[in-house]
Each structure stands twice: as structure tokens, then as C-alpha cells.
Design goal:
single chain, 70 residues, alpha+beta, two-stranded antiparallel sheet, 4 strands, 17% helix
């Protein structure tokens, strides 16, 4: 569960995954413990860091192999 912390609450060991519209006063960051050596928690790392061979160019953009198989 995200802690939803503001910019002033971000520390070196808190997940910096942005949540919401950055122009909104409700904009926050995830805030839970980061994965070792990363800027994001384990869950957000899985979303942010994909192996190169897991994405392919479909002629317009990079897509995951899972989305092509679906």
C-alpha cells in the first residue's frame, strides 16, 4: 500500500513513483521503502524496468511482448 507522501517528505529510501497529476495540489509520491539501489519500490520497479527483449517496436511505439500475444 502506497504511503502517498509529498515532495518535502521524500527521503533517499522512499519510492519516488509519481501518483496523480503533477499540476494538482493532491500530487504525491508512493513513499514506501525502495528496492535496494533503486529509486522505486519493488512493485514500481517491475513497472519501470523491463528487460530490453521484453519490448518490441510495433511500427508506432514500443509494446510489451505480452500485449502482442493477447
Amino acid at each position: 500500500e502506497m504511503l502517498k507522501v509529498g515532495l518535502e517528505e521524500i527521503r533517499e529510501d522512499t519510492c519516488r513513483w509519481p501518483v496523480g497529476d503533477p499540476t494538482s495540489e493532491e500530487f504525491v509520491y508512493c513513499g514506501i521503502q525502495t528496492a535496494k539501489g533503486r529509486s522505486y519500490c519493488a512493485g514500481h520497479c517491475r513497472m519501470a524496468y523491463k528487460p530490453r527483449n521484453a519490448r518490441v517496436w510495433d511500427g508506432e511505439r514500443y509494446v510489451t511482448l505480452e500485449s502482442i500475444a493477447a
